[in-house]
Specification:
This protein is α/β, with parallel strands linked by helices. It is 33% helix and 21% strand. The two termini are 36 Å apart.
């Protein structure tokens, strides 16, 4: 099998670091270009000493150059901020490369909605129209044919996977959904800021961006497609004093006609049916609840279901690793599909416990 040559634009962030780790262990993919404007000219091993004596560590970081990337790569991962990714991503697609964009620039299909939430003009509407939302459980067939996969956000991945079977099987009221989500600090990125300093985060726990987090329209977009009608929900993120992971507790109301005595059995059957054969979604046994430590460093999304009979609610819990399943690992999964490989190639990872 020919080795797939991979380029990584934005190697110095947490998602870039995780991509290097995953591609280093990939049996069919090799990094051939790594870029960073700030660190250009340095050997990659000097930025990530864990690469000592490993193949990727011998690479020299370069400036992002579309022509150089096109000449030396088959697939390019964009781990750069929104606004910057749309121009480079479009240029690479036009040069015939396969692109996995980890920013938000191609996730939201409606140009006006993107501009409203991200306060940036979308200058590549033609490429936006071609992009495929990169959640394999929903769009694997389309991703395999895509030139550009819009890698989902971490919060949306955890929320959409948790709610997909419930909406698909009409188990819940689509107008009454509350997502209470908690993320590790790495979700805020690697650039230093006051709010993510150790002394600001350790021994504390706080909510942020209530009612206005930029992942809201992305979640609503995909759930609306599943439900077949517009979905408006309450999404409430929190910051945990841990490095990585997302735990979501999602409160929904059972649809009329779902009998309480059989609701849990019906829900479990729907989830088992929806994710039958899925490599990376695990429906936990009745009574077990997800924990971040059991998904850390993996592609797993662990899901649990609880019925609250007093409020007629189905409570859905999901746990993922925000850096792997919620970003870099999912990006590799998308690249696998785009390059004709099985989804799981290089991604059968055991949890990083304890």
């Amino acid at each position: 099998m020919d080795i797939i040559r991979a380029g990584l634009v934005g190697v110095t962030g947490y998602t870039g670091m995780e991509l290097v780790r995953l591609i280093e262990g990939h049996p069919c993919m090799r990094l051939t270009r790594v870029t960073s404007r700030q660190e250009a000219g340095r050997p990659l091993v000097s930025v990530y000493p864990f690469l000592h004596n490993l193949e990727s560590g011998q690479l020299t970081i370069s400036e992002p150059d579309p022509d150089d990337l096109a000449a030396n790569c088959d697939v390019v991962f964009l781990a750069i901020p929104h606004g910057a990714a749309m121009t480079l991503g479009a240029a690479l697609v036009r040069k015939g490369l396969k692109v996995v964009d980890l920013s938000a620039d191609f996730r939201i299909r409606d140009k006006a909605t993107y501009e409203q939430w991200y306060k940036v003009e979308h200058t590549e509407p033609e490429v936006l129209a071609q992009a495929v939302y990169g959640l394999p459980e929903l769009y694997a067939d389309r991703i395999a044919k895509a030139s550009l996969a819009a890698n989902p956000g971490c919060y949306p991945t955890a929320a959409i996977l948790a709610l997909y079977p419930a909406l698909k099987h009409d188990l819940i009221d689509s107008a009454d959904i509350v997502i209470d989500a908690k993320s590790g600090v790495s979700g805020a990125g690697r650039s230093p800021s006051l709010g993510t300093l150790f002394c600001e985060v350790s021994d504390s726990f706080r909510a942020y961006n209530l009612g206005k987090h930029r992942h809201t329209p992305e979640i609503e977009q995909e759930l609306s497609v599943i439900a077949g009608e517009g979905v408006t929900l309450s999404f409430n993120p929190h910051l945990l004093p841990v490095n990585r992971g997302i735990l979501s507790t999602i409160y929904t109301r059972l649809a009329p006609g779902i009998s309480l005595p059989t609701a849990l059995e019906i829900a479990r059957d729907a989830y088992a049916q929806t994710y039958a054969g899925s490599s990376f979604v695990r429906l936990l046994p009745d009574g077990d609840l997800p924990e971040l430590r059991f998904v850390r460093g993996t592609m797993f999304c662990d899901i649990a279901l609880v019925i609250d009979p007093r409020t007629n609610r189905l409570i859905i819990l999901s746990a993922i690793d925000n850096l792997c399943r919620g970003a870099s690992g999912q990006a590799v999964a998308n690249a696998n599909l785009m390059c004709g490989l099985p989804l799981e190639t290089g991604l059968r990872l055991a949890p990083l416990v304890p």
